Amino acid sequence: MLDGIRIVEFEGLGPAPFAAMTLADLGADVIVIHRKGGPPNPGQPDRSLLDRGKRSIELNLKDQDDYETAQRIVAGCDALIEGFRPGVMEKLGLGPETCHARNPSLVYGRMTGWGQDGPLASAAGHDLNYIGLSGALWYGSAPGEAPLSPATLVGDIGGGAMYLVSGILAGLLKARVSGSGTVVDAAIYDGSAHMMNLLMSLRQSGNLSEMRGESLLDGPHWSRTYHCSDGGYVSVQCLEPKFYQQFLSHLGLEEDAEFARQFDRALWPRLTQRLSAIFDQHSRAHWTEMFEGSDACVAPVLSPIEARDHAMNQHRQVWRETEGALQAAPAPRFDGQTTIPQPAPQRGEHSEEIRAQFPATP
Length: 362
Known about the structure:
Elements: E1 6-10, H1 15-25, E2 29-35, E3 55-59, H2 64-75, E4 79-82, H3 88-91, H4 96-102, E5 107-112, H5 127-134, H6 153-178, E6 182-187, H7 188-194, H8 197-200, E7 223-227, E8 233-237, H9 241-251, H10 268-279, H11 284-291, E9 298-300, H12 304-309, H13 311-316, E10 319-322, E11 325-328, H14 351-357
Parallel strand pairs: 1-2, 1-4, 2-3, 4-5, 5-6
Antiparallel strand pairs: 7-8, 8-9, 10-11
Helix pairs in contact: 1-6, 5-6, 5-7, 6-7
């Protein structure tokens, strides 16, 4: 889909390389500039899953020859991705003004936690900090428990990397029409708040409370996970009455007067306790077999390895072992075709090739 698009990525951590990986999955030629001397953090491998499908060159940006090579690469690319704190690229002499002077149509993608400006712009932080302050963490976990979200998914990836990807794609479209580049300020704080808008729309109908456990999607007995007798869990989320009725029917509760009052908030805690006792009577496999193929909206909670072995994955081929690593295939799909993950390069594997592609002017 992005054949003919070239992107340069300056090695970073987490959401920035994930965004570049996603663009490589979509067919862009992504050149990642790795630091000379090895990974930025001890213990990191020389070959990262997040570099799949990319080409790698090692440069020391404080060396004049390497710095000039980096400038030539930037001048020959459609987009740039960097994930440093505000001001770092400017200090390296590769800020937006410098890069746009050589490449006016460049889409300059910046990935940070707090954004390029504001009182916290220069402060350190991680996924939970960003989504905690943005409001995105508030409804995580069951009532009475500490808010907790799946590691990196809501902040780094959902609120960060994917917003950087969409910003770069929008910038590329603008550049194609106008010839002018742009600077994409993708902040995890901003993106994770933006993802809340579907949930916030429930306020208009009175179905979103400031109190955790009292809203339409985080309070009901029919919207949570339940522990099973073997230590596994199942997920239940049968919002629509027709699906809720199927759920009750499978459990033999369709004539129960209390369960018939699906939207009675006063009953939610008690009905949750009753369902907890029911699901604790049998294993996850038992409940999976009972509900599988129905419209009751019940599914087992699987680990990635278990998901790989599930019949759904056997058909869709999402999870797969490639180069000795468990990883998910590129998404979305186009024209019904599954894309096989491309190999990740060794650090600096394409250094000579890329230098030859961007030679110094005689």
